[in-house]
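Forwarding the complex inputs:
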Amino acid sequence: MVLKLFFPQCCNTADSGLLVGRWIPGHNSAVVLAVIHYPFIPGQVKKYLSELQSQTQVDLTVLGSWSMPKEGQEGMDSFLKDLSTIFPQECWLQLSREIGKRGFTCQVVQNNGRLLQDREQKNGEGDKIILIHYDQRKVMLSQLHPVQDVGQKSDVEASELRLVFQTVAQSQPLFFLDKYDDGPLKLSHWQSEGREASIIAELLKQASVPVCIFLTWLLSLWYWFCSFRILHLPPVLFISSKLSTCVQSVYRAVHFRTVFSPKKAGTHVEFMRKANIFVSFLVDIALGLLLISWLYRENRISKLADTLVPVADRVAKELQELLEWLMGAPAGLKMNRALDQVLGRFFLYHIHLWISYIHLMSPFIERILWYVGLSACLGLTFALSVLSDIVALLTFHIYCFYVYGARLYCLTIYGLSSLWRLFRGKKWNVLRQRVDSCSYDLDQNTADTALFPLQLFIGTLLFTILLFLLPTTALYYLVFTLLRLVVVLFQGVIHLSVDFINSFPLFAIGLRICRPYRLAEGVKFNVLCQEPGTPLHLMMEINPLKCSSVLQCYRTPTYSCYPKDSWAALCKKLFVGELIYPWKQKTDKTD
Amino acid sequence: MAEEEFTDINGNSISLDCQTHSDFCREFTVTSPKLSLRKVMVYTCFVWLFAYAVFFFTENTAVLSSAIILTLAGMMIHIHFVKVDHETLLIIGSLGVQLSSSYASGRESTIFIEMNKLKDIVINEAVYMHSIIYYLCILIKDPADPETVTSVVPLFQSSNPRLNCLVQVYRSCQEILAQSR
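Prediction (whole assembly, two chains):
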């Protein structure tokens, strides 16, 4: 079996001493975490290690000895060999390095004193050794993907690399002792040159707790306001579920609560979620403020409000012209005059009502828009939701026309299909949910399934009427469906961009670009050139996660689900005349 | 180090380089033929002559600048994402297997497969259009269920060496895998 030793790069030039680390259970390998230098008292070393063991839950032991002899330290070798008796181990490693040579030599001694590998042994019988150099700081900060919980006891034993990463990450308290400490032990690890910290980061950490508590209190006020009985009446609930502004604000309130909760994030996934939401909030608000500064400079918002009423008027006039065209002979088709006039006049009256309503509102529009524009300071997503709602309100008449046209068309189609069945002598069996044939028998026993001649006559009459009215209703339906689809498309684009801003994990992508070692997909090995007679030396580097995997893994879940109808189902619904709602929003689930 | 003349399945000549770092560590590098200057010149001239012909008819200089930008962007994308310079297989007994592709622009993409996930390295046959090709692949297993093969990772997919080259690599790998079993 091959013995694998993970050796930190920072200890390559450390003075002679004891190797402290962990044997990886289940694999024939060990991780070296630090080197304890001379002089030391073995009792204090054992006490320190047991303290750390209880603090970190990592079973740290003395793995062996490290010797890098300098001038005046010639007697070290024999001293090192005797150390194995003080720290009884199953396997004692003796690593040594000479100045000027790049390779280490390693000897492994079993507890019965038998030497397992000798330097001069040429034909590799017995154990072979691989020395894997790793960058301690990067491995400590890195997180292997796919992420598994530390406490999760899976029935599959964790892979060797995952155990190595976990060991180094969990041994953080070991790295707090640096060379400027006046303790009894002198350690060498990545932080032994002194711990670095930033004053700003520490101040922010101290200040964040009261700020979080204050913001959570503000949020609780908002929840208390929302819990008023008057806001829970069915009409209010119905409208607020349809308005995307309300949905977006509820969603953002949940995020707010997640980010500003005073509890510290425990696992990596929670931390990334919090950080992503926080950065997304900041960017959202910054973009919103930018939008406000653009809108309110040179009083653009008043100009916008001034053009709103003429635009609504124009849309209404275009619709009127469209209806006049349909009431004539549109595209050369001949319509049924009576039905045409009825439908046309019905819709024209609607438009007349709508124009009057808009004119009633016009003096207040500028003020309302001015204040609504200020709400963009809550974020760009908020502004976009408000825009989507304004568009929905302004095109409400198109939606109404679509519903009327669709219902009429649907009725026509269903009537036609049912009467067509009658024509052919078949009937819809409600009990069995299928089409059954119908006889013309006038027998008393089967009277309920027989068709009387009168039924047949009236059915045929109605069928003919509906058939000849079909082109008119179909044309109205087609025109209003197309208009509705244009509006839905526009709203869909707005919703897509809101969804994108909501779910894009900016922090994770930034981390991947600036500190790629934090998100690791795996590792890479490079063979370091060595001298003959030394064991194999490998350099382990972190292989960062691909950007597409980062997006997939850290995407914040949002409230919108993409259209669940496939294109074929959508076309079928359009043909039959069922109402389509392509952008259904799923109800907000709390995580 | 050993180098011999091999060809890939299309007849282009490739080279195989085996390095033995230790008893249980070997590295195989398959180098594809480099980007041919003649092909690049032919494509560029073709695109630019076409753009010039379009310009002759439409008198719009945007055609010429867009042709230049297109050629440059196309070349950059090709050498950075498409053209593979060499592919490496590094096998370390009882640690794992590392596959690495190095592109013409210097970009390297690496995958490391640990030994407990590796079931075996085999040569598979495949029927591709009118020919039968051989390819070397790694069988991956789930450590919880050692008998089933969960996925197959083919090696040397851009260089596609022929059977004689694959057999050499296969034999070397099997020697090392036999040691660690």
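Chain A has 16 helices and 13 strands.
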